[in-house]
């Protein structure tokens, strides 16, 4: 179906978190908005994500008794993002992030809550907090979308139960305690019963959590404000009127068609994670070609921006945000990429080893730091194997990769080669092509300290951030336990990206910039089309979604103001520079 009108106030390209935020804000301010999405679904990678949103000094922290300040956040970022590049954008983010959250909750269907015990990734640094800077979406009832629920990108099946049931972060301990605790057993029974009732009418569970809930909230915001969404359409080019972007040319079906934008165009296509030439140009060789992002992230926004003279921000400590990932084949033959973020790496009783069979990293570090260690160890070799090693007890208690806890049988995973099993360490070493003596020494050395809850080699579990990722019920160290009980298992993991950090240069209003630093009238960027304000550093969870929502909001407000004047909050950000 083609758009009902050929002229809009704002055109947004991409229906991920950043794009939908910009569209929702502009529409709530009374503008006529068109969203163009190349796939058949809204949500992008956001719909697959954990939905974490990093916003320092947000007002919701006070609601749960936590304190924070912009001054503390500036101090924290000074050590975790030491490069001077993008200092102005970080100032705008800190000044306007809390404003964006408050405005979205007051004017759209977005609802967030603080994660009280989720620390920054470097809690020992000055200005760090032990929790609350991270916000997560409140659970959303998908039935509120009605027939439009079918247009919301489903979560990764590997992160659901029983073929489509999403689980709240706080319910995971209950599911692990079924049969051990009456309260947990009753809670699990209620969740499963609720899901069963939902499946009587819907193709998957309708109680949405994590990034799927955030995508649903934003989608509901668009629907409530009658934002038109054009699905399965490619933008071929930007239209120019002099040096101003005045619209787009789309290909929908077999026809090219121009659509005008009175105020401007927002690029939010998700970065270039799946574009091989750009990966080869900017990524280290050891990164290979594995991505945990939506396959629609092929650099469309960057290519469109280049035709209007936009500059790329390539001054980044890392070109992407990284996560270790395992690979597998789904029943339908498609390749699956499982991001090992929080479910297994830091739990007690597993280690990571390199191709030589030696540990190379503190397994409880952030996913970004973990992969930086992989890249350093890989010495530029793409597809070099790394392994997670565990025993029977760990696999039963925590699962591994997409293998869920309490799996009665793992035969199909072993048969496919996804999981490697052996009755002893020597034969496991042989199966993963490392010297048995090396792997035996690695595990024996780890076990010596682990029996007492220590990790002398890497200090695993030494910070509150690392302990948060472990198992609080395991004492004395929630991240460390020996590997003892046969059979033993290994799973291949590889460096993968969660999103690109290199993107367009923008100003504090979200406008794309030329090489000379002047803004391109009518052209905005947010999300991963915008260069990372953290320069590829990862100070905390939600470091992509926090700026995506904030700069989507900033762009939407600036467009509503006529695309000319900066808001008072943006002006106030100058003192932070």
| Largest sheet, strands/sense/barrel | 8 strands, mixed
Supply the number of helical segments: 17
Number of strands: 21
CATH overall fold name of the largest domain: FAD/NAD(P)-binding domain
Rounded to the nearest angstrom, the radius of gyration is: 24 Å
Low-confidence stretches are: 565-577
**Structural class from helices and strands?**
alpha+beta
Give the CATH superfamily of the largest domain. FAD/NAD(P)-binding domain
Fraction of residues in H or I helices: 25-40%
Provide the CATH architecture of the largest domain: 3-Layer(bba) Sandwich
Distance between the termini: 47 Å
Which features would summarize this protein structure in a list?
577 residues; alpha+beta; FAD/NAD(P)-binding domain; Flavocytochrome C3, Chain A, domain 1; eight-stranded mixed β-sheet; six-stranded antiparallel β-sheet; 17 helices; 30% helix; disordered C terminus
